[in-house]
Amino acid sequence: MANRRRLEMKVLEAGRCEPLKAAVHGVLFTTAAVCAAYNTAAWLRRRQRHLAINAVIYCAAVFWERCHIAHHLAACEAELPVPVQVPALAPPVLSDAA
Q1: Could you tell me if residue 62 is inside a domain?
Q2: How far apart are CA 75 and CA 21, in angstroms?
Q3: Average pLDDT of span 72-85
């Protein structure tokens, strides 16, 4: 077992494929938000304890996924190159025009 082959996936490394990771968390965020909305609405209608518990858990999941999305998007911004300032062109002289 000492020579066990190690599973290496580059996507799991920090700083790699950050837009993909943000998109995956975006899908999870949307799913959790829909579940939170459903369970909250159902609890308001039926007042069953398990619906309230589900609503709280899904609302926490929405917050959790929002934090992950922000983290991955911040990593994307850190990777962007610094924009180069391009000197402005001098306006054309129109007095010589015809």
Answers
A1: yes
A2: 11
A3: 78
